[in-house]
Write a structure and sequence with these properties.
Elements: E1 2-4, E2 11-13, H1 22-27, H2 36-47, E3 52-56, E4 72-78, E5 84-90, H3 97-116, E6 124-131, E7 142-146, E8 161-164, E9 176-179, E10 185-190, E11 197-198, H4 201-211, H5 223-229, H6 237-262, H7 274-286, H8 291-298, H9 302-306
Parallel strand pairs: 1-11, 5-6, 6-10
Antiparallel strand pairs: 1-2, 3-4, 4-5, 7-10, 8-9
């Protein structure tokens, strides 16, 4: 059941068409250029401007086994101002998640410098995290952050500008000043905090992420296209088997992590002490957990865990 509040109306609506989970689609069909329209719809709704996906960038999400991979899609997009922006969409459950997000954004900035050969080629990076679990405390379901320069004495924002000799305003003005907007931006979407109330286009997509359903009344850009492409019944028997195995792996991983927490196996991880991680890994080995699961719990690499066996 969903409550819609658009145009001042409130109505209860239902729809029984089961759709593929969005995190699974990130691993599969959304890597096909023919399905970029779905990504464009979601990004346009979240960023509140028209976005065109130009290409899929090299990503660490090309593996096939759920436990051993990151759910991440790296995209090069063009916004409504014709700026080219790198967007990273990810859905992971791992230790040191925020550190991982910062590292991923920084890595993309470095790669853009290497491609251009100069600091001027640094691309804007937008990191979008879709969280199916509680990562922190708060009363909202979408959080946004970026770097903002403010005067220590006045508190007013500092507008960073540079000369652009390519934009001539007049013969007496050989250049113009343009604002710089290159600092990374971060969006965190907490699916479990969403209460199924639709107030804006992005809410329709978040409702889909949470419930695996898209209502006929939803009208944000390309969301009805997503409904057709994500129809579970359109899967081949082989695709359905792989998808069911993914869901099974997901449930097993959640059960193991939750059980481990209740047994005190991952106590001390927040302190980040290496000896605590090693002790946790050793205890997990004694419980018979495999290295992939222990890696998810502790943040240690599989190679480090195997050396402890």
């Amino acid at each position: 059941m969903v409550q819609e509040k658009k145009n001042g109306a409130t109505a209860g609506l239902t729809d029984d068409v089961d759709l593929i989970r969005f995190d699974w689609a990130m691993k599969t069909i959304l890597r096909n250029k023919a399905n970029f329209d779905v990504l464009e719809g979601f990004l346009s709704a979240l960023l509140r401007e028209d976005v065109e996906v130009l290409e899929l960038l090299e990503s660490e999400g090309n593996q096939t086994t759920f436990i051993s991979k990151y759910n991440r899609v790296d995209l090069l997009v063009k916004d409504s101002h014709n700026r080219k922006i790198i967007i990273e969409i990810q859905n992971n459950r791992e230790a040191d998640y925020f550190e991982r997000v910062v590292y991923g954004a920084s890595q993309k900035i470095v790669e853009s410098v290497e491609l251009d050969g100069s600091y001027k080629g640094i691309s804007k990076v937008i990191s979008i995290s879709i969280l199916y679990y509680n990562l922190g405390k708060g009363d909202d379901y979408i959080y946004y952050g970026t770097t903002e320069m403010k005067g220590l004495n006045t508190g007013t924002p500092w507008i960073v500008r540079e000369k652009d000799i390519g934009l001539l305003k007049a013969e007496t003005e050989p250049y113009v000043l343009i604002e710089k907007d290159i600092f990374p931006e971060y969006y965190f979407i907490n699916i479990m905090k969403f209460n199924d109330v639709i107030n804006k286009d992005a809410d329709e997509w978040i409702y889909f992420f949470k419930n695996n359903k898209i209502l006929d009344s939803f009208h944000s850009r390309n969301i009805q296209i997503a409904k057709k492409k994500f129809d579970l019944l359109k899967m081949s028997p082989k695709e359905r088997k792989t998808y069911d195995n993914y869901l099974s792996d997901l449930m097993i991983e959640n059960d193991v992590i939750n059980t481990s927490k209740s047994d005190g196996i991952i106590i001390g991880l927040k302190q980040g002490r290496e000896e605590t991680k090693i002790e946790t890994a050793i205890n997990s080995i004694k419980l018979g957990l495999d290295s992939d699961i222990i890696s998810k719990i502790t943040g240690l690499t599989v190679e480090e865990i195997d050396k402890l066996r």
